[in-house]
Every structure is written in structure tokens, then in C-alpha cells.
From TrEMBL:
Protein's recorded name: 1-acyl-sn-glycerol-3-phosphate acyltransferase
Record region (Disordered): 38-71
Biased composition (Low complexity): 38-48
Record carries keyword Acyltransferase: yes
Keyword hit for Transferase: yes
Record domain Phospholipid/glycerol acyltransferase: where: 135-254
Keywords on record: Acyltransferase, Transferase
Pfam families in the cross-refs: Acyltransferase
One function term, GO molecular function aspect: acyltransferase activity
Source organism, top-level taxon: Bacteria
One GO CC term on file: membrane
Length: 349
């Protein structure tokens, strides 16, 4: 009979520094206006390119960063070790359902071919993600299907020196979907609500939020890279209450994976979905239409916005919350313009 996995209270273990022997794993387990930008955006883009040439450590190409074994014998050994741990129950699950062993051994390797070969993701500014302690990553959302959130998860885990896990906050629809909801819990994600977010942040986790929600990923292709409303600033309140830095994250490339040309609203209402997409390939080609277009991606993490110096009750100041929310949104928007100028062609190398 298969032994039960151990359930570990969130505060009882630091997943970022847990050793192999503790996890039973084969390796450490870690806990837009118009598309054409103005002169200032072009200058910012040029400065970004020059800075990257001067310091190549700030940009990571997906194909170079995977720490996964390439030798078939090593892969087989890893797979056998994983199945042995599952059969013996020698793995840990936290209060949110996060299974680091399953995430590192199965879920992330499944996403890496998309990240490295299909989208050829380049990451910039990874040094802005803290080595330890909590932080709130706030990103733009786009692309009809939320692949941008998944690629950001791979970026932080594979390219951060601490191989940290991104604990994403998702809409309730995600957790109602069969299979998807269970996998999201296993990957460490939870409902987008302040109590869960604050608990994760206080325990030293990297938490990811996409404030545009369905308005972002479901917007028409003609509105690509134009940020939608960021809500009421709930993510800023969570950061202020916990004193963690806010890291703006700008993602270019996701908009072109499934260009949204139309929305079959009656069908969406029938299925209980926020929208039912019509793209150049879907639903015309059936299952083949679900294959994303191989756009070129950039993910840039901006300089952290510190919140630790604010008073404990600063989250109750609506003007402060509004101003910080607007600052994060404007930072992401301007960085998108810069990245678009840098990328050039949609499918370029």
C-alpha cells in the first residue's frame, strides 16, 4: 500500500534551503497606447540593449539555463528515483497543497521545451528577485491562454540562483477546472485573495499576481500591449501589510501566441467561461488550433519597489495604495514599449 505523503505546515519548513535528504529528492527542492513607442521609449530601449551588452549576466537565454540532466542514463535514474519517492510517500506537501517534488520532477520539465525551444524566452533583471525572503512579482497578463504565468514560473525557478518557486495567485475559475485545478494546487498556486497572499509573503515566498486578470488575457489583439485596469490595488495592500518588495514584471511575446480576433459570447456563457476565443487557427483547425504560435519572448524583472519603510497602517491610506499601484502599472507599461523596440520581429531570434 502506498504510504501517505507528509503534510508540512507552511511555517515549519523553509523550502528554499531544504536539502536533498530532507526532501527525498535527487537535487535541492526550492521551497498598452500604441505599439510604436515615442522617442523616450526608443531611448530607453537603446539603453537597455547597451546595458545588456556590457553585463551579459543580466540576460539569460532559455536554452542555456536548464539544470536538467541531458544524459539518458541520468534521466532514467532521476525518473526511477522519483517513482520510488512517490511509492514510499517520501515527499512533502505544504498547507496549500504545494508538492515541490512533483513540480520539479514533472511539471516544470513539461514546460521547459516551450520555454527554451518554442518561445526562446530571454530573461532580464533576475537579480531583482530577492535571494531569500518574500517578494511580490506583479506582471502584465495577455495571450488568450495564460502561458505567460507558466513561463514566468520557469524563468524564476531555472534562472534564479536560489531556484525559487513562484507561488501564483489565480482566479477561482482555475481551481474549479478538472485536472487543471488539482495541478495548480500541486504547483503551489492558490486563490487570488489577500489572506492567502499575505500568509505566503510572510513565510518568505515569491508570490506572483497578474492584476489585469481575464481583462488582460481576453482582450482583442488590436489592444495588444495596452495594459488594462489593475483593479483596486489589493496586491499593493498585501505588500504593505507584509513589508515585502514589489517587483514589476514585463512580458513581451505572449500577445502573439493566440491572437484573439473574436469572442463567441453566447458559447462562453453556456460553458461558464469569461470568453470563448476565436483566433486565426482556433476553432477552425480543431486541436491543431490549440498549438501556440512560436513568438519571441522577453521577460524583464524591474527594480523592486520597497514597502518595508512604510508605517504598519499604510495599507489603509487609499491615496498611497493608488499611487503605488499606478507606479507599478506605469513601470510595466514603459518597459513593454522598450522590450517591443528591442525585439523587432514578432518571431525573430
Amino acid at each position: 500500500m502506498v504510504a501517505d505523503a507528509r503534510v508540512i505546515p507552511l511555517h515549519a519548513v523553509d523550502r528554499r534551503t531544504r536539502t536533498t535528504s530532507e526532501a527525498g529528492a535527487g537535487r535541492p527542492v526550492q521551497a498598452v497606447p500604441d505599439l510604436a513607442a515615442g522617442d523616450s521609449a526608443a531611448a530607453a530601449a537603446a539603453e537597455s540593449v547597451d546595458a545588456e551588452q556590457d553585463d551579459s549576466a543580466t540576460t539569460h537565454h532559455g536554452a542555456d539555463a536548464s539544470a536538467e540532466p541531458t544524459d539518458p542514463a541520468d534521466r532514467l535514474a532521476d525518473a526511477l528515483a522519483f517513482f520510488q519517492r512517490r511509492l514510499s510517500g517520501d515527499y512533502r506537501v505544504d498547507d496549500f497543497g504545494f508538492d515541490a517534488d512533483l513540480t520539479d520532477s514533472v511539471l516544470l520539465p513539461t514546460l521547459r521545451p516551450l520555454y527554451e525551444k518554442w518561445f526562446r524566452v530571454e530573461t532580464i533583471g533576475m537579480e531583482n528577485i530577492p535571494t531569500d525572503g518574500g517578494a511580490l512579482v506583479v506582471a502584465n497578463h495577455s495571450g488568450t491562454v495564460p502561458l505567460d504565468a507558466l513561463m514566468t514560473t520557469v524563468a524564476i525557478h531555472d534562472h534564479h540562483p536560489g531556484r525559487r518557486h513562484l507561488r501564483m495567485l489565480g482566479a477561482d475559475l482555475v481551481f474549479r477546472l478538472p485536472v487543471v485545478g488539482a495541478l495548480a494546487r500541486k504547483a503551489g498556486h492558490t486563490l487570488a485573495c489577500n489572506p492567502d497572499a499575505e500568509r505566503l509573503l510572510r513565510s518568505g515566498e515569491i508570490v506572483g499576481v497578474w492584476p489585469e486578470g481575464f481583462k488582460g488575457i481576453g482582450k482583442p489583439f488590436r489592444d495588444r500591449y495596452k495594459l488594462q485596469r489593475f483593479g483596486r490595488g489589493g496586491f499593493v495592500s498585501a505588500a504593505l501589510r507584509t513589508g515585502v518588495p514589489i517587483v514589476p514584471c514585463s512580458i513581451v511575446g505572449a500577445e502573439e501566441t493566440y491572437p484573439l480576433l473574436g469572442d463567441l459570447k453566447p458559447l462562453a456563457r453556456l460553458l461558464g467561461l469569461p470568453y470563448f476565443p476565436v483566433t486565426p487557427l482556433f476553432p477552425w483547425l480543431g486541436p491543431l488550433g490549440a498549438v501556440p504560435l512560436p513568438s519571441k519572448w522577453y521577460i524583464e524583472f524591474g527594480e523592486p519597489i520597497e514597502t518595508a519603510d512604510y508605517a504598519p497602517d499604510a495599507c489603509e491610506d487609499p491615496m498611497l495604495v493608488f499611487n503605488l499601484t499606478d507606479q507599478v502599472r506605469e513601470t510595466i507599461q514603459q518597459t513593454l514599449y522598450s522590450l517591443l523596440a528591442r525585439r523587432g520581429g514578432v518571431f525573430g531570434g
